[in-house]
Each structure stands twice: as C-alpha cells, then as structure tokens.
Amino acid sequence: MDRFPHAANVDFHSPLDLSKAAVAVLDAEGNISGWGASAQRLLGHSPEDVLGKPAGRLLAAAPGQRLSALCGTHKPRSTVLDLSCRNGRTLRAAVTLSPLEHLGVAATVVVAAELEALRGWEAQLALLQGMATESTVGLTIFDTDMRVVWGNVSTDLELAGIAQYIGRPAADLFPEGEFISRHHPPDEDQIMEHVMTTGEPIMGMHYRGRAPADPVREHVWSCSYHRMVDARGELLGLFEESLDITDRYRAQERLSLLVRAGKRIGASLDVRRTAAELADVAVPQLADEVLVDLPPAVIEGRQPPTGSAPGHSLLRMHGRTPEEFRTSPVSYPPSSPQAQSLGTGRLVVDASPPEAPGEEGSAPSHSCLFVPLLTRNTVLGLATFRRSSNPDPFGPEEQTLAVELAERAAVGIDNARRYTSQHAAALVLQRSLLPQHLPEQSAVDVAYRYLPADSRVGVGGDWFDLIPLSGARVGLTVGDVVGHGMHAAATMGRLRATVRTLALLDLDPAELLTRLDGLVAQDSEPHGNDGLSDEALGVTCLYAIYNPVNGRCSWASAGHPPPIVADASGSVALSALAPGPPLGLGGLPYENVDLNLSSGSLVAFFTDGVVEDRRTDIDSGIDRLAHVLTWQRCPLEELCDRALSARPPGPQADDATLLLVRTRRLDADRVADLELPPDPAMVAHARTVAERQLEAWGLSELSFTAELVVSELVTNSIRYATGPVMLRLIWDRSLLCEVSDNAHTAPHLRRARRDDEGGRGLFLVAQMSQRWGTRYTSSGKTIWAELAIP
Questions:
Q1: Among 10, 226, 482, 500, which residue's CB has the most CB atoms within a 10 Å radius?
Q2: Separation of alpha carbons 453 and 436, rounded Å
C-alpha cells in the first residue's frame, strides 16, 4: 500500500507550463486564430465559438483596448485578467502574452492559467527556496553511491562549507560521530542502504558528534532519511534531514536525571550511601566526577557543627559499597572557593580551578561547581562537580541542575543522619527493655539469641526474660508482639515489665497469664491515640517456672508455641497440650502443664520467627529445631548458633528469639525438710534442728539470724494453721528458709504500737533477711525468707 496516498496531488510543474496551461493564438488584429484543447478545458468555449472572433469578447470587465495594447508590444508581458467562461462564471487568470513574428505574419501566443493555482505553485517554490536558504533543518542529498550531491544553507553552515564535501561519502561529514538511537543499525551506511533498498524511510534517529563548524562543543541531531526517485520511478539517491536538538536533548537528559535522582538519592537512609548515590546519578551525564565532603558529626548521625571555620574538619567520601567505603580528611583555606561556598551557602563556579587539597592524582579539571549541601537553613557539607574530559563549561541550566541534585542529596543525607540518630536511640531503648545480663542463679544454664526482622531499625516485638523466684526457682518467659519497630518494642517493654511484676508475686503460670490477659485487654480498648493499643492485639506469651529442688517445670501458654524438651540422652519430646488463646482476647482459661525434668535436660523456648518461614510450614521448622536439640551435649552458645543458622537463607518475615535452658538439680544434701505438728512447743525443736543443719553446712555464722527467722515463721504458722507445718531450709547462693501450712491467709507487715503484744515478728524477719514474701500453693501458702551468706 502506498505510504502517501495523496502524493500524486503534489505537483511542482508551473500552472503556466505548456503541458498544463490554456494556450491560444491571436492575429495582428486581436482576433483568435488558434484555440487549443487546454483553453477549452479552462474556459469551456469550443473552437467554433471563438475562432476568428475578437479576443476582447472573452474579457469579463476590462475594455478591449487594454488587450490590444498588450498584444501590440514587442516583448512578452504578463498580467491578470478576468475571463468569461461559457457557463457565465468569471475566472481570474494569470495571462502571459508572447509576440511572434514569422515570415512577416504578426501573431501573439497567449498562455493562461487560473490565478489561484499559480499562487499555490509560487508558494511551493517559496517553500523550497526557504528550506534551501533559511530553514534550520539541514538538508543533504546523496546519490546512489551515498556520496554528497547537495546541501542547503543550514548544512553548509554546520560543515563550514558544503563545497569541500561534494562527491565524498557520508562518513566523511562527521568522522567521530555516532548514532545514540539503538532501534536501528548504528552505522550510517547501513541505514542509507536500507532506505534505498526498501524505500522505507527511517526517521528520528539521534546522532551525536562535533560539527566541523563547532569542533569544541558536542551536538545532538535528529536525523531522518528518505529515498528519492524520478518521474519514471527510477532511484536517484536519498536525502537526509537533520535538526540540531542539542538543547532539547540536554533538557530531556536533565529531566531524566532528576527523575532518576528522585528514585535513587536518599533511598538507602545511610549517609555514606547517599553521598555515593549522588555521584552515581550525576556521573557522567552532568560531571566527570562528584566529590562529597561532610563533617564527622553528620556521618555519625549527630547535629552538624555550627560556628566552626568553613572548610575545616571535613571528611571526603570514597567508595560506593560498604566494602569499598573509606573517608579521608580534607580542609580548605578561607580564601578558597570551597570555603566561600560553605560560608555563604551558595553555589560557586570556578572555570579554571587549581588542584584542591586531597585531590592529588586526579585528572585536572576544566570547570568546577562547588555546591553547599543545604537543608533547613543548615549547611551539611559540600558537593563538588568536576569536569575534566568534557571541555564544556557548566552552563546556567547545568548549574541549576547541580543545585537541585545537591538539595536532594542534602535532604537524603539529613534524613539518613536523623535516622542514624533515631536508630541509635531505638537500640538504646531496645537494650533497656531486654535483659542485657541474665541474673545469676543455680537452677539453669542459659543462652539466648535475639534477631529482629527489621534489620534497619534493629528493634522488634519479641521478648524473653529469666526471673529469680523464691525457693531457688526461676521464672522463664518468651513473648511475641505483632509487628516490628518502635511501637512493637514499646509494647513489648510494657508487657515484659508486667510479667516480671506478676512473677514476683509467685503466681503460677496459668494465673499469671490470666491476669496478664486482663491487662492486655484493657490496653487494647480504643481509648487512646498513642498508636500502641493496636500492637497489643495478638500478643502471645509463654511463662514457665522451674524448681531445681524437685526438677518440676510448670508452664502455660497464651497462643505461643510450647517449648521443646530434650532429656539428658538427647531424646526430644513435644507437648501435646494446645496453647490457650493469645493475650487480650479472653474467653478461654489457661492451663498449667507439669513436667519432671532430670538434671541436664535441655528446654528450648522460642518465637515463631525461629521455626516459621514463608517458604516452609511451622512443622518443618519445629522438626528442624528439634533436630538441633539432639546435639544437646554441645555448649548452649553453639546450639543457639546452630539453631539460627539452620533457618532458610534470605530476609526473615518475623523477629526470632531463642532461649535455651539446661536444667540443674540441687543436691539432696543442700535441702533439709522438717514436718512439725501444730504445737507451739515445736518452735524450740525447729530452732534446734535449724542450728544443727547450719552447723552441718558450715554456716554457723548464720545460726542466730536463722534461728530467729525460723522461730518467727514457725510460730505464725502454728498459731493460724490447722494442720501440720513444713519447715524447709535450702542452701543455695543464699540461705532460704520456708515455712508452709494449709492456711490461705497471708500475714502482713505492720508497725506494732508500744502497748501491742504482737505484730513484731514479721518486722524482725524483714529486718534480718534480704528478701521475704508469701506464695500460695494448692494446699495453702508458703512464707519464705532469704538470708545472705557472708
């Protein structure tokens, strides 16, 4: 199909051409002696109507004398006449009269054409002349051998004279140029060959090079190629259109550079990377090299210094990856353009900069821009844009672009600085919320790992804790708050503190979770806008109590995975009891699970992040962790590393917390039990037994204090209990005195008045011991006191 269906209407023959115009012949008297078919087509008169008759009859308005005057001249004349058509229409025509004298016979040849058609043809000629002489579009004609035939004025100016290139191949015009459009063959000869062979024009190719008339500055042209054929359809060659689009192309490059800068600069929230991102974006489109100088305070996340001399104590950024990154000190004298830019907060242009400090070995610069990194009216540092291989100086648009890039980089650096500061604060918060050093105790050996999923923030919602309890027991807890970051960490801190407070009340695990569930439900009510209540929903928690005296471990779970237990032989057991509902939901009770653990048993408390992964189910993760626990004879620290390294590689979706516990049992000779009937006379017997036991343990120095504490505790129990009283002494890191009975009423400390007969016993116990308290059991209560061993 013809690509240009209306091309046949484009005709560059003149309407007065004899092949198209109306032609008539007049004799010496002005009568029509010849009338062609073209004249009949134009005016409609047949030869019979006009031959031999005066030509003046064909004039619509002008008198006949005017036509006679035109015919009487001896040279060609052109005029505009109004002619009458046969249908009564008046036709304004362009008429040329050419006198003929042959063999003494005078005659005039008249050529006429419609005036409007002639004016259109003349406009086409003017267009062609304008394209050849005035158009900014370069036009170059090549023959079939792809050699230069002709070029218009624009081409002549770009080539500093077209004449020297006539007959030369196209490659000689711009020998160092190149096509930067990649959707066609990049070789100009191949492009021309394709156009002449197929007849398919190629348009909009971008070509970059240096024109002979301007060899210093690099230009970009938009080039199009069209085949040329003659009236018979035979190939004549082709012509090239070229339009210098350097300014537009550079404007588009600047725009794309800004778009790329918006996507890349500041995306890392790292001061060092942001400085490297500025260089990556600006090189090589804007500059050959970009240097970024920052004060150490900004790199470390602190406030930039104020009041210091500009250009002093700066660090230059090197490297684009953490492995390559390094800094080197640099400073500028007060008179330098760098110090001037830092001091005024404005761009400084240096067209012939000397070698600056810290730039030894760099290529000499032809032009430099010194742009302050300015944000919130604070100068954070200096960005230097240098050109060494590109000889063009920085133009006004490029200076504006450099300022824009520096502003984006300054915002990114300031955000990274603030993030670094807040990240450090978040880590301090996290460290304050999680135990840094687990307390010393005799019940278990412990190792733990905490890996937040949000590695950028470094904080999460998981928590763990080990809480020393009365009777040499320990409380062990692991919990998980939905989400990551500061809100989850703050909620985690509240819950961990609450669990520790409730644990010190000596509540059993199920009772502790029941009370904690009620507190979480209250916090989850939509009564505040602090952003923390949503985090409290879906909290899971596991709380366990281990008693090293009898090896019993009791635990309860609020939606949390149960612990995995491996005995001393490495045999792994999983709990069959399903966990209760997560905290804050309410409605279902929590149940205790009791286990008897031998000394050396290994218990793993963990959160979902240790065993759950997007690519595998939780059962596979539990099996993986259980397999690691079969190596239970390994040191706990090594087991922790094995367990976490066994997780699938790649980013993790949830925080991971692992608490490994290896149980101990107190030796039987460190525990002494004595059952006493509810007889006041048994108080003296209890003191005697305590004295003998302390002497056997080598703790005679505590005899007086211990006898006093035992005496008061046994006396209170016998006074208010209805059944037997049990006295237990435990030699641990301190001396533990416990008295248990079947009463559920707990004594309380009070200050006795001068005339009171009682009320001073617990006061003495509190003064003599380092801790004391009451815990309830299923059969009654236990009052205990701890005495420090000297």
A1: 482
A2: 20
- How many other CB atoms are there within 10 angstroms of residue 229's CB atom? 13
Query: By C-alpha distance, which of 342, 518, 509, 304 is closest to 420?
Result: 304
Instruction: Count CB-CB contacts under 10 A for residue 629.
Output: 21
Q: What is the model's pLDDT at position 529?
A: 47
Residues lower than pLDDT 50 in the chain: 1-8, 65, 527-536, 756-757
Instruction: Give the model's pLDDT for residue 244.
Output: 92
Which residue, 264, 286, 486, 460, is CA-closest to 368? 286
Instruction: DSSP for 209-274, please give it.
Output: EEETTEEEEEEEEEEEEEEEE-TT--EEEEEEEEEE-HHHHHHHHHHHHHHHHHHHTTSS--HHHH
Handedness of CA 127, 129, 131, 134 (dihedral sign): negative
Element (H, E) at 583: none
Per-residue pLDDT tens for 159-173?
999 999 999 998 888
**Minimal CA–CA distance to 410: which of 367, 371, 370, 457?**
371
Tokens 């301190």 locate to 734
Strand partners, 595: 553
Q: Let me know: does 11 contact 3? Beta carbons within 8 Å.
A: no
Residues pairing with 84 in the sheet: 90
* CA pair distance 167, 284, nearest whole angstrom: 38
* Among 570, 567, 572, 578, residue whose Cα is nearest residue 626: 572
- The pLDDT score that the predictor gives to residue 1 is 35
Instruction: With CA atoms as reference, report the closest residue to 774 among 734, 752, 746.
Output: 746
CB atoms within 10 A of CB 178: 12
Q: What is the pLDDT of residues 354-388, one digit of tens each?
A: 555 555 555 677 789 999 999 888 899 999 999 88
First to last CA, the chain: 109
Both tokens assigned to 94: 């362009």
246-264 and 396-433 helices, crossing angle to 10°: 10
Q: Residue 728 corresponds to which amino acid? A: R
**Per-residue model confidence (pLDDT) at position 754:** 54
CA 507 to chain centre: 48
HSE-CB for 43 with a 13 A CA cutoff: 32
Map 673-712 to HEC letters.
Answer: EEEECCCCCHHHHHHHHHHHHHHHHCCHHHHHHHHHHHHH
Tell me if 480 sits within 8 A of 560, measured CB to CB.
yes
671-708 b/e (C-beta count within 10 Å ≥ 16 → b): bbebebebeeebbeebbebbbebbeebebeebbebbbb
